Amino acid sequence: MEDTVDHLAHERSKAQFNVEEMKIIWAGSLHALQVSDRIAKLVASDPGFGKENRAVLSRKDLFKSALKKAAYVWKRINELGLSEEETSWLRFYVDELAYDYVHWGMFVPAIKGSATEEQQNKWLPLANTMQIIGTYAQTELGHGSNVRGLETTATFDPVTDEFIIHSPTLTSSKWWPGGLGKVATHAVVYAQLITDGKEYGVNGFLVQIRSLDDHFPLPGITVGDIGMKFGSGAFNSMDNGVLRFDRVRIPRNQMLMRVSKVTREGKYVESNIPKQIIYGAMVYVRQTIVADASIALSRAVCIATRYSAVRRQFGSPQNDQNGNGIETQVIDYKTQQSRLFPLLASAYAFRFVGEWLKWLYTDLIQKLEGNDFSTLPEVHACTAGLKSLTTSAAADGIEESRKLCGGHGYLSSSGLPELYATFVPACTYEGDNVVLLLQVSRFLMKTISQLQSGKKPTGTTAYIGHVEHLIQCGCNVKKAEDWLNLCVILEAFEARAIRLLVACAENLTKFANPLQGFSELSPDLVEAAVAHCQVIVVSKFIEKLQQNIQGIGVKQLLETLCYIYSLNLIHKHLGDFLSTRSITPKQASLASDQLRSLYAKVRPNAIALVDAFNYTDHFLGSVLGSYDGNVYPKLYEEAWKDPLNESVVPDGYHENIRPVLKQQLQNARL
Ligand SMILES: CCCCCCCCCCCCC/C=C/C(=O)SCCNC(=O)CCNC(=O)[C@H](O)C(C)(C)COP(=O)(O)OP(=O)(O)OC[C@H]1O[C@@H](n2cnc3c(N)ncnc32)[C@H](O)[C@@H]1OP(=O)(O)O
Ligand SMILES: Cc1cc2nc3c(=O)[nH]c(=O)nc-3n(C[C@H](O)[C@H](O)[C@H](O)COP(=O)(O)OP(=O)(O)OC[C@H]3O[C@@H](n4cnc5c(N)ncnc54)[C@H](O)[C@@H]3O)c2cc1C
């Protein structure tokens, strides 16, 4: 009989805040909560979206299952007449990586961002109805980070009014695009534009790669899958692909011509739109990845927190009602709390900074429509930096969550190994995290150098305008409670960031060759960029707290999480804070004292804080993290579902076990 007891009910009864209000804060609005909740339940109750154990499927079966699910998603969206908002929630809760992620996430945005209105009118209706399936073919075997180094060529032929797309070398083979290997019919291909014998840099071209009748590659095209990837399940349901062109011809009007164009005569014409707009799809996706990071981390933390409240190890001074000794819940170990609660706080911090980044991006798009490009450099720096910061922290946090679950965390049924394997490439795709931080530091060095000419930094760099104050100021914390002051915390972060930045700027002047200086100092520049990004996350968390927050105890709990997020970072990056004299060793030790009190405040609320994510058991996909905390029967049941347990005596016994045993028998007789 199924156990219907809520093993975490006692934990839930201890919460000191209104969980329903916290759910609204996490979702972003009451409306978002209602829509997401309805769609989550719809997905969880539909057997078509059932989550079989992906880890035990062969690559082919995994891929086939992902294809089936993607087709079913599309069918249900159309049958139910879902809105755009509902559709994105549906894809989110189905939680299976397939070609449609790149189609909707990159192919369509690339057309929207880089095609002319006329081109959009032609291609978007086809893409929006999935009459064509697209991929984003930028990276090559030889070059990923260095986009300017791409080798694929697009040479204009004025005789036929066509571009000839060609892969001149092995290293020019497109390599990695998702959905390319076996599914995509079209691709936005990034290639070096050549016309009239001159090269004009990388541009996007819309190229059909497979027949819409029989799915065979078109003449001149070689295409396939690049092979198994890290982990079981995870990205292996996606057909990341390889693509080569042997002088494939496409009409001239399939060059994406919003930023620059080639005329019928073969003349290259630039518009007044910055060339970087060609990279617009990457800016868009980096912004969405920050939201992915908070989701992935919160999933892991939800699993680890619920399991930590259920799991007991070693004795306890307390006795139960019958006078029997009961063991300690592992969540009560201070070490467990000091590892888990900062991750919980980070999930909330990333959620809020992701929300703000979405606003910043939407604002950019509105400005671009009015030909205002002024915020593009800042948006590029924020999306690049925050993508880097949050994905690195979330990937590390998922792995830490696995360890927080002890041995059972290593089981596939915990959901954590696949979550990690699925999420960790986010540190690489859409820009390697170190390469992106170098972009941020380049932007910051420019901001600092412009101070001398009187240019006032704005937005996320506004604090750099207060350089004199921040270089001189001292932190006033004298006792542990003094750290419970958001202005004090923010100033400590700003002081540390600006001091690192100014040190880099000063050191750069010691090099005659700026490029060489930048290269020599790149580790320091990366560190300074991280410090700057942390200022953004902390300040956006603080801004969130200044909004009208409803519900008993909600604001207090969020404040506690904000302090934990910040003080834990101080603890982690103590070297920076001390070497820049942003705080003293005594203040560092007071921060650690304060952290202990903050963990004690979170403890009774921990389960309710992860309940506020409102994740269904279907979405979590973890026997350790289920809502009712009924961990052991679920673990036991799940083990028996493994294909190895289908037979009592394993396949191969007669060939490979019995002879060994017999051999031992013979040896023993001798
Ligand atoms: C379980 C939960 C998990 C959920 C998981 C969900 C999964 C979802 C599926 C995910 C599918 C993944 C899909 C992945 C797709 C990809 O990876 S696509 C390929 C992405 N590739 C990259 O990101 C490449 C990174 N490299 C670059 O971006 C650039 O080449 C570079 C690093 C920026 C360097 O280029 P370069 O031309 O050398 O530039 P610079 O000289 O440094 O800069 C020139 C100026 O341009 C500015 N700039 C650069 N980029 C941008 C931009 N994107 N937008 C705006 N401006 C930009 C730069 O700052 C310079 O400005 P100035 O200093 O003013 O000159
Ligand atoms: C799962 C997955 C899905 C992907 N999907 C797509 C897709 O749909 N479409 C697509 O086009 N691409 C896709 N990619 C490719 C991805 O965008 C690239 O792998 C990524 O941009 C990193 O580039 P790279 O592989 O060339 O790394 P490299 O640049 O070769 O990085 C190797 C190492 O060199 C370092 N490095 C490189 N340049 C510098 C520098 N200037 N300074 C200091 N250090 C440096 C990096 O930090 C890294 O440690 C995908 C990749 C993955 C893993």
UniProtKB/TrEMBL annotation:
One of its GO terms (cellular component) is peroxisome. Keywords: FAD, Fatty acid metabolism, Flavoprotein, Lipid metabolism, Oxidoreductase, Peroxisome. Its main location: other. One of its GO terms (molecular function) is FAD binding. It holds the Pfam family ACOX. Its cofactor is FAD. Residues 18-133 form the Acyl-coenzyme A oxidase N-terminal domain. FAD binds at residues 139, 178. The active site is at 430 (proton acceptor). Residues 279-445 form the Acyl-CoA oxidase C-alpha1 domain. It is found in: Peroxisome. Transmembrane segments: none annotated. SUPFAM superfamilies: Acyl-CoA dehydrogenase C-terminal domain-like (SSF47203), Acyl-CoA dehydrogenase NM domain-like (SSF56645). GO terms for biological process: fatty acid beta-oxidation using acyl-CoA oxidase; lipid homeostasis; long-chain fatty acid metabolic process. Residues 488-662 form the Acyl-CoA oxidase C-terminal domain. The keyword Heme does not apply. It comes from the Eukaryota. PANTHER family: ELECTRON TRANSPORT OXIDOREDUCTASE, PEROXISOMAL ACYL-COENZYME A OXIDASE 1. Belongs to the acyl-CoA oxidase family. This is Acyl-coenzyme A oxidase. It comes from Rubus argutus. The lineage of its organism: Eukaryota, Viridiplantae, Streptophyta, Embryophyta, Tracheophyta.
